[in-house]
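Q: Joint fold for the lines below.
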Amino acid sequence: MSAVLTVADLAAKARTASRRLALLSRADKDAALLAIADALDAASADVVAANAQDIERGRASGMVEGLVDRLTLTPERVAAVADAVRDIAALPDPVGEVVRGSTLANGLQIRQVRVPMGVVGMIYEARPNVTVDAAALGLKSGNAVILRGGSAAESTNRTLVTVMRDALTAQGLPADAIGLLDGGRDAVRALLTARGQVDLIIPRGGAGLIQTVVTESTVPVIETGVGNCHVYVDAAADLDKALAITLNAKTHRPSVCNAAESLLVHASLTQEFLPKVLAELSGAGVVLHTDPAAGSAAEAAGIPHVPATDEDWDTEYLALEIAVAVVPDLDGALDHIRAHSSGHTEAIVTEDRAAARRFTTEIDAAAVMVNASTRFTDGGEFGFGAEIGISTQKLHARGPMALPELTTTKWIVEGDGQIR
Amino acid sequence: MSAVLTVADLAAKARTASRRLALLSRADKDAALLAIADALDAASADVVAANAQDIERGRASGMVEGLVDRLTLTPERVAAVADAVRDIAALPDPVGEVVRGSTLANGLQIRQVRVPMGVVGMIYEARPNVTVDAAALGLKSGNAVILRGGSAAESTNRTLVTVMRDALTAQGLPADAIGLLDGGRDAVRALLTARGQVDLIIPRGGAGLIQTVVTESTVPVIETGVGNCHVYVDAAADLDKALAITLNAKTHRPSVCNAAESLLVHASLTQEFLPKVLAELSGAGVVLHTDPAAGSAAEAAGIPHVPATDEDWDTEYLALEIAVAVVPDLDGALDHIRAHSSGHTEAIVTEDRAAARRFTTEIDAAAVMVNASTRFTDGGEFGFGAEIGISTQKLHARGPMALPELTTTKWIVEGDGQIR
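A: Joint structure:
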């Protein structure tokens, strides 16, 4: 009950703040962002000290070193977080953009204008830099944010939010533009059901978090981030490109959602290309989960491998592991991907125009790549200058989301007395 | 359990059909739409006969005449429904539109392309023309639809769907592009939770239906249609325009969502304008629910009125009734609207640029009108050529929705071996 009250209170304050934010000029918002960046730099030692508490608590409870690294903020990392805020200040303001418009036959002038969403809830896991990114992207797009970070980063997040709120106050802006949600699961549930008070919830994290949010929320949600990405090497592939793309997609940064999790190889390539790519993957430390045909090729070449289970085709390893299958033809690849795609990013390597055209047309995913690594599905790579997450749903936003995706639109209709 | 199986089966068939639809050319889709229109014309007598059964059943169960009229299909109305399908055939195809794109520094060519949603569920009430409209808009935008009409129109809807499915089959297209959901509430619940099988659900109907869908659905929903629209007559209004707009907004078609439900009048207008507008409204048969100040004005002029209750300010009458309040100033109007708006359409009547600018900027609604009737928030009026509903939510679509709103996008990335 108290959690519900807390969330209602937090949401009401955020709503009030959001009305101020919606009216701010770009200059005012950018000044506030630069003030936040400076404040983060000035508070670097406090942030690192708070972060040290989280790390100590994490280590004491047996947190693995990979997670400890994601959680850790050094003075250099704090400086990078502050610089990211300055980068956001430099981006164009999405608010006020006229998306379309016309003058109707009766003289009414109509235009569809970008406006802030209002109050945006972010629910995310470890990395504390998301706390600052989300607040800064929210502010730039005129939205108040309610942040719910992982409990592992609790002290860090609290310090970061305090620093940012104080900077807003010093700028004469409402501190409630940036809210931090405390409390247990009840508080999260209250946030997810604050329909009408909260306009949008963006979950960022593992499949379990996303699933919970999607199932429990009555507030509109943008689903992000689960990526079971495939690379399909077609019969007509340039095999050098295929090798480079497969290795890059799998090994460049295995822990992220746009890394490849499955490799599909055309049956005509089992003799030469398949052993070669399996050897290179294995040499890079990648565990190979093979179907019978790929297993035979690995076996013949003396490459370590394990038989793929049914689950492997649907697994987002986020690690140096890959599922490998041989497919009879392009249709086999399309069928396999349709059955197992998470709708994030799917890639084909081919020099055959017809195959590329069918693949890009028939595959239903946020991004479809021809002769490029799956790793390019990214707001930064696409030139957006920022990213709040990668949507894998079809409603509102699909693929990398940046500032415009944090806005909605409003129709403004101006007349001189028109009636129907 | 059997309902669940039915929905899963229906959704699976719709998914298979949607894959065919997504690849159809505009020419193929338009030919199918024209064939459907011709088939509806040819089956007019069957449709009218099926409709007569629904009407008989309705009358026997005491259906009010207004609803009977909405339910009724005459030969002329069937012809109009068929013509509406021809109009949809004449609209541009949204699928394939390149929304944006660029060539990145590394040579990757990226473009964001409009693609169909996939499978769209429509849940709606009485009017059987929605059955045909939704199917036609779905087909034009490359989507398979699962239709759930009101039980009052059951025979009519079944006949309409059979006619349309047969027309698709005759065109060599999958009949499962148009599915009709039978069964009770369990079937609806199964549809609402068919996440992953159904891509989008659009409810069209009263507040109760919308609320149920929004609360129970795990499939993404676009909320439509509840309109508690306000007309605010400012101190600087042209009073002739104000009178015409108020009367039009309230009385032109009171049963629809863009009709006005509340009138707010600036305190400076209580002497002359207020009695005049109240008299005209009352003369047009409108019941006046007045706040104390408006009540005094009505009383003094001998105009019938009833005191407004707290509920009146939030009531969508959809009838010849209106709530009337006197506000001290523009801020009072903004506060009142913020407290009671359903986010559909809000209008100001004023010749004051500053007041108009504040109103259009500060009011958070799908459409904000200056010196125009609220009745203009409509896909047809906006020149979209069709309308599947009016979204009152902020995600994906806001305001009148037509063909583009039934699509999502996909990023197509073409390279020649790029890696990160």
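Q: Anything notable?
A: The mean pLDDT of chain B is 95. The domain at 2-223+394-414 of chain B is CATH 3.40.605.10 (Aldehyde Dehydrogenase; Chain A, domain 1).
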